[in-house]
Amino acid sequence: MRGVAETDLGVFTAVIAILALVIVLFDTAVLIGTVSALGRLSRAFQANQANQGDPDTAGSLLAPLFSAVDMDGNVIDNESLTGRLTALLFVSTTCTSCAATLIEMQALKHRARDGVIVVCQADTAACAGLAESLGIQARIIADESHELSQLFEVNAVPFAVVLASGTHIKSRGYPLREQLQEAATDHEGVRDG
Predict the structure, then answer these.
(1) Closest by alpha carbon to 161, among 144, 145, 143?
(2) d(Cα 170, Cα 11) in Å, to the nearest integer?
């Protein structure tokens, strides 16, 4: 009888120890989640305070300062993108899903010309070959050194960063047709008006 009681006590102790571990892990996860959420809310609040009154930049993060020259020799920087939505579409010449995204972008026809800037992670010759093979009409920046990619924290392609007025990041991630369409449409009114 004593052996059964010791076994029951051992099982009980093990169950209590497992429950204590689960509670500690749960509390840790809740604490990490709370700290993470507070950090996101704090950053969003700070950005919102800086952007009050501008609906395109409300709640968005500040974009890094950048300057690049496209393949036509035009300077593209924060200031040149003021007043409009612009999508920076990061691609590579060796990425098959990038080609599909660029073909999708071409479906926007001429409207993508000003609203979408292709940032090609290759040298000028390779980027020119990609543009020619796919008939890309958008402005293209050859980012051979990946300087812009690093600046905008792009680790995989295709990747889109939608800028509001050149100063704020409205969205970032896998490029959706809706994002490219919104940026292209925003620029269409300027050219046509």
Answers:
(1) 143
(2) 55
Give the predicted TM-score (pTM) of the model: 0.63
Nearest in space to 116 (alpha carbons), one of 58, 177, 65, 193: 177
CB 97 within 8 A of CB 105: no
Q: Are 114 and 187 in contact (CB under 8 A)?
A: yes
Query: CB pairs under 8 A, 24+ apart, for 144-147?
Result: 146/121, 147/68
Provide the residue type at 35 as one letter: V
What one-character DSSP code corresponds to residue 157?
A: S
Cα dihedral 52, 57, 60, 62 sign = negative
What are the pLDDT digits (tens) for 128-144? 999 999 888 889 999 99
Note whether 85 and 166 are within 8 A (CB): no
Give the burial class of 108: count Cβ atoms within 10 A of its Cβ; 0-12 exposed, 13-18 middle, 19 or more buried.
Answer: buried
Give the integer Cα–Cα distance in Å for 162 and 169.
6
Backbone phi, then psi, for 164, in 5-degree steps? -100, 120
132 residue type, one letter: E
pLDDT tens digits along 51-69: 444 545 455 689 999 999 9
> Which among 82, 84, 141 has a CA at the least distance from the CA of 115?
84
How many C-beta atoms surround the C-beta of residue 180 within 10 A?
A: 24
| CB crowding 131-158: b at 16 or more within 10 Å, else e | beebebbbbbbbbeeeebbeebebeebb
